[in-house]
Design goal:
The protein is of the alpha/beta class. The protein has 2 domains: 202 residues, Rossmann fold, CATH 3.40.50; 103 residues, 3-Layer(aba) Sandwich (Rossmann fold), CATH 3.40.50.1100. It is built from 13 helices and 10 strands. Strands 1-2-10-7-8-9 form a 6-stranded mixed sheet. Strands 5-4-3-6 form a 4-stranded parallel sheet. Helix 6 links the parallel strand 4 and strand 5.
Length: 322
């Protein structure tokens, strides 16, 4: 577990050394350096804003984006504790469960997923079918039961079982999210802003811990409700005030909700830049970035790092392709 009063970089270095010693992970490509690409997009160039993209989406064909980062230290701690089974939670299109099924199997764990919606089954969509094919045992529960498990995950604790919160949202998940910048060899101080989509808030909180005070972290919430900012303020307690901003104007109705305008933007942006986005997280985040630049909330002359957190599997559930 994270060691209190130990510098963040030192904690990460200890975990990374242990991960690098596993030949299965070395061979998987999950420890590879993340690329950073500069976007060519007319609106950004017209506003004299440089936007670079941290390509976590390209890390691995199955375990895409930030999912690996929120899982990896949980997996390492489970190994250290002698656990043989990993259990976690997610919705019908959960990239988190999909990633856990793959990497858990890679490391020899039994994997179990609690899925929100007892009307579903493994044939409901390709994500669930693939998770099962990767060896994950799926249990479908009512939304009420799911909330109970999510709020009290220890109720599912058992001998030799490591329980991971939804989205990998715990201290180990935050620490793993913070390591994304190191795996990209990013010089964070070169940027004025870092922009990332926000779901559980685990990646957002982890990145804020890893960034210098001079960099403004902008999160774009995929969820609707005043409670989202309240929860984020609680997470950020003790960190520099003014170092983060949560955009709540681009959720398009709430989690998993989309509009024709959003889908049209994602198609057009992909056509113009070659960068694929998903409608749940990164599409909303990029549309928010466009608007923030257009409205000068991110001013002329800024240099922005956009964290592409993956999730492209979810494109299959929406009419995005022509």
């Amino acid at each position: 577990m994270p060691i209190p009063d130990t510098p963040l970089s030192q904690q990460i270095a200890c975990f990374e050394t242990a991960l690098a010693a596993d030949p299965r992970l070395q061979a998987s490509g999950l420890l590879a350096t993340l690329d950073i690409d500069t976007l060519s997009y007319a609106l950004f160039e017209a506003c004299s804003v440089q936007v670079d993209v941290l390509r976590a989406d390209q890390l691995h064909p199955v375990v895409s984006g930030n999912k690996w980062f929120k899982l990896k230290y949980n997996l390492l701690q489970a190994q250290r504790d002698g656990c043989r089974e990993l259990l976690s939670f997610g919705g019908a299109w959960s990239n988190h469960l999909h990633a856990l099924a793959y990497v858990g199997g890679l490391l020899g764990f039994k994997t179990c997923g609690i899925v929100r919606g007892n009307e579903l089954d493994t044939a409901a969509n390709p994500m669930l079918a693939e998770a099962q094919a990767l060896g994950m045992e799926l249990e479908f529960v009512s939304r009420q039961q799911f909330r109970y498990y999510r709020e009290a995950p220890r109720q599912l604790a058992a001998d030799l079982r490591w329980v991971i919160p939804e989205g990998g949202d715990n201290q180990l998940g935050q620490l793993g999210a913070a390591s994304m910048l190191l795996q990209a060899h990013a010089v964070a101080g070169e940027y004025s802003h870092v922009v990332v989509a926000v779901g559980t808030g685990c990646t957002f909180a982890g990145l804020r811990q890893a960034l210098p005070d001079s960099v403004k972290l902008v999160g774009v919430s995929a969820l609707k409700g005043a409670w989202v900012e309240q929860d984020m303020a609680r997470r950020m307690r003790g960190l520099p005030a003014g170092g983060w901003y949560l955009d709540q104007a681009h959720h398009f109705g709430g989690f998993g909700k989309v509009t024709p305008d959003l889908l049209s933007f994602i198609r057009g942006f992909g056509d113009n830049t070659g960068l694929l986005l998903d409608p749940i997280y990164t599409g909303k985040a990029m549309m928010a970035l466009q608007d923030l630049i257009s409205e000068s909330m991110i001013p002329c002359g800024s240099r922005v790092l956009f964290v592409h957190s993956g999730g492209l599997q979810g494109r299959r559930g929406f009419p995005i392709t022509h």
